[in-house]
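RESIDUES AND SHAPES:
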Amino acid sequence: MSRMSLFNSPLLLGFDQFERTLDRIGKTAEGYPPYNIEQLSDNRLRITLAVAGFAREDLEIVVEANQLSIRGRQKEQAERIFLHRGIAARQFQRSFVLADGLEVSGAELANGLLSIDVVRPVIEQPVRTIPIRNGTAGNGDVAVTGGTARKEQNS
């Protein structure tokens, strides 16, 4: 059975990358550590991860190619003997795909919560008028800017 794409419309030009991104996101659905995403304003988000037991030096935040990755790895404490170990001390990696234009502005660790602020800088989109060139009608010539013109073959 074939799968219908949400971005299959000819009116959505250049959005084919989104489908691949959505597929990648769907495959990384692990539940640890739990997190919240909060909208602080129209242009600001905050991602908060529950990382109880992790120190600042146990955490790493990296942004590469529109992907925000948070990694945590606690150091082994061989001198400690646990009779019961119910607090997770495992390593983790949590990733978020950032839309074009989003930037990570900072991070803070307080009371076992790692907060990462993400902003979308307000950029005014200029209005451009596209000039229309005069063309030739009916003779099949194609004008090419910066190159050579070629004549189309009619069969």
Remarks:
- The helical segments are 16-26.
- The two ends are 38 Å apart (CA to CA).
